[in-house]
Structure formats: structure tokens, C-alpha cells
Amino acid sequence: xxxxxxxxxxxxxxxxxxxxxxxxxxxxxxxxxxxxxxxxxxxxxxxxxxxxxxxxxxxxxxxxxxxxxxxxxxxxxxxxxxxxxxxxxxxxxxxxxxxxxxxxxxxxxxxxxxxxxxxx
Amino acid sequence: xxxxxxxxxxxxxxxxxxxxxxxxxxxxxxxxxxxxxxxxxxxxxxxxxxxxxxxxxxxxxxxxxxxxxxxxxxxxxxxxxxxxxxxxxxxxxxxxxxxxxxxxxxxxxxxxxxxxxxxxxxxxxxxxxxxxxxxxxxxxxxxxxxxxxxxxxxxxxxxxxxxxxxxxxxxxxxxxxxxxxxxxxxxxxxxxxxxxxxxxxxxxxxxxxxxxxxxxxxxxxxxxxxxxxxxxxxxxxxxxxxxxxxxxxxxx
Lengths: 120, 252
Known about the structure:
By secondary structure, chain A is of the alpha+beta class. In chain A, 27% of the residues lie in helices and 17% in strands. A three-stranded antiparallel beta sheet of chain A has the order 2-1-3. In chain A, a hairpin with a 7-residue loop joins strand 1 (30-36) and strand 2 (44-50). By secondary structure, chain B is mainly α. Chain B has a single domain (3-246), classed as Ferritin, core subunit, four-helix bundle (Ferritin, Up-down Bundle). Chain B has helices at 3-26, 35-61, 67-73, 92-113, 119-147, 151-169, 178-183, 190-207, 233-246. In chain B, helix 4 crosses helix 8 (190-207). Classes of the chains: A alpha+beta, B mainly alpha. The interface between A and B is medium-sized, with 20 and 18 residues.
């Protein structure tokens, strides 16, 4: 079956007739991307990119996560270098309900106050 | 040659280069070698279209027609882009080398233009310099990666450079207005730019063990600036102008 497309870019590629044998993909490693909206702010995790090396990871991160919106700095970290807890251990995060006073609820209020101040 | 017509000619060459190469490079959208690179290359193509629009707007302020009219209704011989930008995208090695060679020149050109006597142009140059700085970074990293990759990747880049360097030299084709452009301090001239360009690309290529053809073989592909184009430009224009020619008032 000839692949027909109204998109001239696709048409130009003259994709082959018949079924195409797809070989397994050899993916590049992934990097976790963190962006910073302004100096002094914390870097926030925004997503991942595939890239063959560190430099290119930064380039791709810039294109995917910093093209729109404000950004002053980017971090990329190889996903394999992230040390994480296991989901089997989720119970370690259970909080004691009677010790609710230890939760940092106050910070949430502070965020709202700062946001309001920022608007003004 | 009056200041105005020298300036206009200069702006048309630049704007047409960016429009045509931006359109060409956008042909990779959806077909790039990997998702992230597809996005990056498409973004840069879009940047180029934006830069051409900004240049056409300066032209409009000098009494030329609306940017859409200029981009979508001119005939092939009325375009003043260099021939290099009109060639089909080929394989990715071809497009990458063109991106590398053209964008180094574009970056340096805009950098020089921050000192231009044409104030709107100087302002625009200061604004877009950062954008193209990223394009150059992107190109340099690929050249390094593939030039130092394996035997095939190195050979492919070198072959593309060997076969297309004269086309790239056509970027610096001058017109009769060159001395007016320099005397009026619109721009320091194509010759100065070319020397800067060579000292900018050579270290990057050397690091990737890539070589330019020997100077004795240099023979710039000229004519584009005078409206003499290759067979590749007309089909591009037909495609680019298709919607506009069906319905000039269409909005999208």
C-alpha cells in the first residue's frame, strides 16, 4: 500500500510501499530537567528529555521547557543518577494523624501571601 | 545609489534568506531524526520566519508593501535570497551543515548590525542575537558530536562540506550597492563578515577533524542576490504561496 498524504512534506519523502519492518528502537538515555524562573528561586522539575550527552540534553531541555515562559537557568541530571526510594516502602511516609501539628501547613499560607504580594 | 535603496536591497536579501531557509527547515517538522531534535529544529525554523517577518516590517516602514504581500505574491526572480538556502533539505547531514554554515554567518551578521546606522535594524539585531546564539550552540554541538562520532558520521559531514562549500560562499555575494552599504554605515560589508565567519567556523570544524576545501577551489555560487535562482526555488514558492493565492484574506 502506497502511503498517501496531503502533507507535501510527507509526500516528498516517498515512503516505501508495503509493510515496513521496524527494528527495535535504540533510545538515548533520559535526563531529568529542572528550570528556574528567576535567580534565587528553587529549580523545579519540569520533565525529561532523551539526549546522547550532557550538552545536548541542555539544548533539548531549553527547547522543550524554556521556549515559552520565563526561565533564567536550567539543570539537567541523568535519570540514572537520581537516587529514589522504592514504592514498596511507601509506608515510611505515613504520618501520625494525631501529630497533625507537625505538618508544615503554615508554609502554604506563606506561599499565598507571597503570591498576593507579588501581584501587587 | 541612495541610502534608502541600498538599505532596502540589503534588508530584502537578509529577509529572503531567513524566509526561504526557515521554510525549508520547517520541512523537517514531524520527520526529524528524534523527537527532541525535531522540536529543536522546528523551533529554529520558526525563529527564522519570525526574523524574516521583523525584517519585512522594517521594509514596510520604509514604504514597501505589507509583509504578507511581499512574502506571498512575489515571483521567483524577485527574491534575493542566496541560492544555498533554496536547496531541498536532503538528508539530515545536509540540513545540519547548512544550519551550521548559515547560522554562524547570520549570528555574526546580526552582531555586526547592532552597530548599524539604521536604528530599527540595530535594535532588531540586539534583540535576535540571543536567539541565534542558541542556534549556533545547537549546530556546534552536533558538528562536534557527529564529526567525532564514527567513521560514517564523520565522512558524511565532510562530504556535505566538500560538495556545498561554494554554495555557502554564495551567502556573501555582493551587489552594486555594496560600497553604499558600507559608506552609509548600514553594514561593514560581506567581505568583513566572511572573514569573521571563517574564523568562527574553522575552530569548530577543526575540533571535529573536519576540513574546508582548499582556497584554490573556492568558487562562490552567486546570482541569487540578483534574482537568478536554481530550479528548486519555484516549487518551494508554489507550496508556500498556495493558501495565499487561493484566498488572500484567509486567516490562520
